[in-house]
Each structure stands twice: as structure tokens, then as C-alpha cells.
Amino acid sequence: MMKNYILFCLFMCSAMVQAQEAVATDSVKKKRVSNEFIELYDDYIKIRLGFSNSFNSFHVKDNIDNLDFTLAPNQRLKTTLTFMYKFIEFDIGYTPEFIRFNKDDDAKGKTSYYNLGTRLYFGQWLQSLQYSKTKGFYVDKDDIGITENILFPNFQVTRFGGSTAYSFNPNFSLRSIFLQSEWQKKSAGSFVPSISYNFTEIKNEDPSKDNVIDVAMGPAYYYNWVIKDRFMVAPGVYGGVGYNHTKTVYEDATPDEVVDGLSLQTQLRLTLSYNSEKFYTGATASLNTFYYDTDPKIHLQDRQQFFEFYVGYRFKGPDKINKILDNPPKPKINKKTDK
What we know:
Helix content is about 15%, strand content about 55%. By secondary structure, it is mainly beta. The strands form two sheets. The chain has a 16-stranded antiparallel beta sheet that branches. Strands 1-10 form a two-stranded antiparallel ribbon.
């Protein structure tokens, strides 16, 4: 069963890639234009600055030792700078010391975090890739009934992953939900199936590390509710089933340990936004959770949750560059003539 599921996922990925290539080729030939539902800003360069408390946490329920606790980083404010132009978006996230509001490193430890990410749009397709690294976690004393928090300053989670999604409704704007690089002019919703894939490396001071592979696919539904042209409320929900592969690798002669099994993924998302031709702002809340079992009696939830406030500005891109990208020169073909 598991082998068939993996083969099916690979087939879907291959089909999605081929479809994206076809759409990308067609988009070069035909420039997108605004319509009654969507306002485009393809000729604009967009800069966006976000402030969020994005972080990963691991909720562990161990029925063997009767433990129920959450391993989490010391939550702090993170800034993300995003650059958007045409069909590509690129962002970088970092936690500078001067904007930190929590001064409890002695009690909860110090957390360092940064990430890189990109989104590519090809017609109704969305392709995203993300890389993140978080170091410094703790377990709250109240979770296990002791007097002080347990600190794991060298506990490190490195993650690389992405997702591929397709919107069935051409009048629905995915871009207006995520980074507001275009705007939904009339209310619309869409069924958006997607496949997500993540590789996570987890390590601490122990002479071992866990390599975790998660693949999940399933349906999602988003709705953009436009209020008086400039305001929008956009809820969304996703549910998927997938495959989890966890491999514990030891540095000494201890044999590797491998656990395979089915996993579940859920995501809840809500965006509130304001838009004008050049200035835009909004707030987004999201909770993304993987559920899987590392043992029949040990249940694990890998949570990615955040709240973000952002502001952005658009300005016209150089006319020469816009013209070149909208009408790329055709390659010259040298025709041989017989003498």
C-alpha cells in the first residue's frame, strides 16, 4: 500500500511539473491582463516587510511513560523582507536582536532562527520552496510538573520543503492571499488541491540525529471576501493524508532505526488585508500541523504556527525591462541554403 501511495505521489508531481512547464511557455507568449475579478500588478516591483512570531513546536504524547509536553523555541518576533516582480517572489527572514520583546532567555533559553523562501506562479499553478533553521528549544515546567523549565540550547531543527498547488477557479487570486502581489476585485473562492513535501533534520547534543521525510496531498478551499473594494477577509482550510519516514542515524556503531507510517496534515489560515494601487497592508494567522506516530504508544504533532502583520509598497518597474520580459526576443534560426 505504501509503495503504491509513493508511486502515485511521484506520478502527480511529474504531471504537475509538466503542466507548469506548459503554462509557463504559454504565459511567455500571452501577457496577463486585469479583468473584473483580479487587478494585476505584474509591471510593478513589490517590496513587503512582515513582522511575525513564526516558529515550529513539537507536541509529544507518550503513553508509555505517561508524558504529555511541548518542545518549543523561545517565541520571539521575526522580520521577513519580501521582493516580488512578475511571477516570482523571494523572501528572507531573520530575528535581529534590537526588535526582541521577550527578555526571558534565562528562563526559556535563547532561540536563533532564519529562513529563505520563494514562490513561483505559472497561470493557476503555485510552486513554493522554503528553507528554515531553528536552534534553541525548551519544555515548559508546567507540562511535566517541575519547578524550572528544561532547556535544550543545542536542539536544532533544519527544514527544507515546499508545496505545489493548483487553483481551479481562474477568477480566484491566490497571490492576493499569500503576499498580495495582486488584488481580488470581486469576491471569489476556489478548490485548491496541493501536494506538500518536507525534509527535516532534528539533532541535539546526543550522538544521533533524526531525518524526517513528510509527503502529503489533499484538498483545500479558500475564499476571498472583498469588502468595499479595498478590504478583504480570506479564510482557508486544508486537509491531507501522507507518508512519514523517520530515520534515526547514530554516529557510533549503533544500527540506524527506521519508522514508516501514514501521517495526517491540517492547515487553517485567515488573512485580513487592505489594498490601494501602491500601498497595502494586512495580517495573517496560520496553523499547519503534521500528525504521526513514532511508536504505537507515542504520538507526535509537528506544528508550524504564526501570526504576521505586514506592510508593502509597489512602484513601477523599468519600462525597458517590462517590455523585454513581456515580449522576449525570439531566437534566430540560421537556415542553411544549398549552393
